Amino acid sequence: MFRLFSMRLLQAILVMIAVTAIAFVMFRFVGDPISSMVREGATQAEKDALRMALGLDKPILTQFFDFVGQVLTGDLGTSFRYQQPVVSLLMSRLPATLELVIVATFLALAVGIPLGVLCALKPHSFLSRLTQATTLVGISMPTFVTGLLLILVFAVTLRWLPSSGRGDLVDLGLWKTGFLTLSGLKSLILPSITLALFQLTLIMRLVRSEMIDVLSSDYIRFAFARGLPRAYIYGRLALRNALMPVVTVTGLQIGQLIAFAIVTETVFQWPGMGLLFTNAVGYPDVPVLAAYLLFVGFLFVMINMIVDILYTFIDPRLRTR
Amino acid sequence: MTDTKTPVLDIQKLRVEYPLASGDTLVAVKDIDLLIRPGEIHALVGESGAGKTTVGNALMGLLQAPGKIVSGSIEIAGKPIDLCTGRTEGIVPGRDVGAIFQDPMTSLNPLFTVESQLCEGMLAHLKLSRAEAKARALELMKAVGIPEPERRLGSYPHQLSGGQRQRVVIATALACSPQLIVADEPTTALDVSVQAQILKLIRDLADQRGVGVLLVTHNMGVVAEIADRVTIMQNGAVVESGLAREVLTAPKATYARTLIAAVPPIEIRLDRLPVPSEETQVTLDARASVRSKSTKSETGSRDDVVLSVRALAVEYGGRSLIPGRKASVFKAVKGVSFDVRRGEIFGLVGESGCGKTTVANTIAGLVIQSSGTIDFQGTALGAKREKSVRKSLQMVFQDPYSALNPRLRINSAIAEPILFYKLASNAEEARQDARTLLEAVGLPADAGSRFSHAFSGGQRQRIAIARALGPRPSLLICDEPTSALDVSVQAQLLNLLKDLRDLAGLSMLFISHDLAVIRQMCDRIAVMKSGEIVELAETETLFIAPKHDYTKELLRLAPSLDRILSRQAAE
């Protein structure tokens, strides 16, 4: 158990070193930031002064170690565009994205798992046919279309829910949350449904096929032969086996959502990290991009590690004696 | 405890039908009668498709839709079953009828502890408290003879051996003290030594607790070992039923006689096993043609060594993420040496995990040895092999269902290696060869235009053999070629392999866990245990005067019709 954990940690560190190197290379070689930062017609002396101020004149290796040192102390540089520390930029955007993703994931799991079980147990019932058909539409429609449709119906026509922004926020110091106000919660509904739809379909289909597999296994037949209550067999014995791959997929999907909720955030003008990233690409705001790359790498590494550790708790076969 | 007069199971005129997509119905069970008294073990015997498992499922209410009971009656402990629901009023599966399934590796849920799986039935049916259930679970673990029962309760299934798992399955079946146990092939997936222990356990349960047992099996040795009565089924109908000893020694029905005769005896070596139908002239002609082709390349005498294996060792695992550190190594084969001579059938026998299949895979080049040499017709075999070597070494696998590509027509499947090794000048000639090979293994030549799913297990194995013969090999490796097949089909295939050896001068490496099959087939035998050969001798020497204790043990434990019958006659 401990060995497994330390092995995973070691791998995580290796991956993070690689990601840092890539982020640094990007920092250093993607275009010359000086040319986009200085005003038009600046003299060479002005450019050199700026270059020295940013430390871009030192040898590459020194720059890399400086960079690693800064990253380790939590300093990700200063945004070229906003002239603010990147960390505080990220921290101002992170809560918006995280709250959106948490709600979307919760929705996807809470609706997707029961629907998947239903479709596996009663494949010919009206409800499961309806679910299968609807989710097929859900998975094949691009996110921005579903988002716009939802805005059209619930924001423009019915005027039930806001169409953009986070609503009123409560400041908890480092974290500004929309969970504590009515308008904040209302603002979360449409974007989270939009974001959840794809995950929901994915989880539903995964649970369904896994459940069908598990139900035909010997140990479930054996459970029936022992006359155990149906609800117990489906809800506990079979579902736990069927949920194994769902853990992996959900973990990876959470990473995906946090990192790439860009489309949904754009449609709903959600002040999350996606918007920050899109703007940075256009500028090019290299410190933000590099920090973003580091952050996403870190996120995936962490999520994968958590999934692996969760696995050993769920599946006793992975625990070493 | 139970009323000894009321039968625990009374089936009368039971008929189970499956409506087919075509509109017809398949009658899986045709009006059968079956009676089991308390303390009696009743064996239900037949080949695959005979309907024996359906009977067990019907009385447990486990029939798979769309199958249904059409007529007849089932009474469990005097209470009739409701034919519509498949359930008996007052009879709860699990509480009154216990089940034991075939494969202990898959019948326990991998994510739950032994304790949880033992207790859940008691909590549901007997309304025991958790502590009471746990106490009883401990008692059951002791009753089925699991060492360290307290610790094992907290174990997960994967931490137990196959035999221990089957004991846990039996303990779960017993948990609510049922009057009837349905055991569907309870020992088929187990090694002989474990099989002997499990059979004894079931016999003791019947004797001491008065449990009635319906034992579904295809193994006559198992029937002879523990059954009181036996019912032989064929195509859903009862062919013969009576006291086990009488039916086994003097079967009356023709089918019963052929079925019992087809069981390979372990005591005596027969030239050919008796089979219902013998080969036709077409088959014999085709074989002659196969022989004339293969003997062209065969020179040299019968005593030549074709394959010589020296100090072969195979290790698995061993690579670690951290360089310089060796992870745990599993030694599957530890220094095995033997020779296979021309025209000889060399047997490798041993229990599961002894490394016999690894040896075969290494010779075939599917696994690379860690050390040791394999010398095949004067060429040392390593990771890279000449085409001519690969051509001369062909393999027949255990499971005929997965050994054939379902998307290839049989003709193409057989012609493929012939073309690959350029043994035919064009595709038409290769197809002609394929047809001859099909005839040689006793299949009609037009079988080649169909796909593998159109064939039964035995026919598929014949096709696999024909495919292996295509490249005109000089050594055929057969890894448990008949263990997935019924006895009568097994008898036909064993005869076929022998004929091919005699006709084509083929050498064979024959791997099996079944000592009776080995005795019928092999000229010399190596007995393997934990990766080593413990004894190597001529077949007759080994069976008559085994030297090593392990060989003696294997021979003693193998269930054998004749031995048990003669022992019972003596009593």
Structure write-up:
The complex is a heterodimer of chains A (321) and B (571). With 321 residues, chain A is mostly helical. Chain A has a domain at 89-271 and 294-318: MetI-like fold. Chain A has 14 helices and 2 strands; from the N terminus they run H-H-H-H-H-H-H-E-E-H-H-H-H-H-H-H. Chain A has helices at residues 2-29, 33-37, 44-53, 60-72, 86-121, 126-140, 143-157, 182-215, 218-225, 230-242, 244-260, 262-267, 273-282, 286-314; strands at 170-171, 176-177. Chain A has a two-stranded antiparallel ribbon. Chain A is globular, with a radius of gyration of 24 Å. Chain B is of the alpha/beta class. Chain B contains 20 helices and 21 strands. The longest helix of chain B is centred in the middle third of the chain and has 18 residues, at 192-209. Chain B starts with 8 loop residues before the first strand and ends with a helix. The mean pLDDT of chain B is 83. At the A-B interface, helix 1, helix 9 and helix 10 of A face helix 2 and helix 5 of B. Chain B: This is ABC transporter ATP-binding protein. Chain B: InterPro entries: AAA+_ATPase (IPR003593), ABC_transp_ATP-bind (IPR050319), ABC_transporter-like_ATP-bd (IPR003439), ABC_transporter-like_CS (IPR017871), Oligopep_ABC_C (IPR013563), P-loop_NTPase (IPR027417). Chain B: Residues 14-260, 309-555 form the ABC transporter domain. Chain B: It is found in: Cell inner membrane.
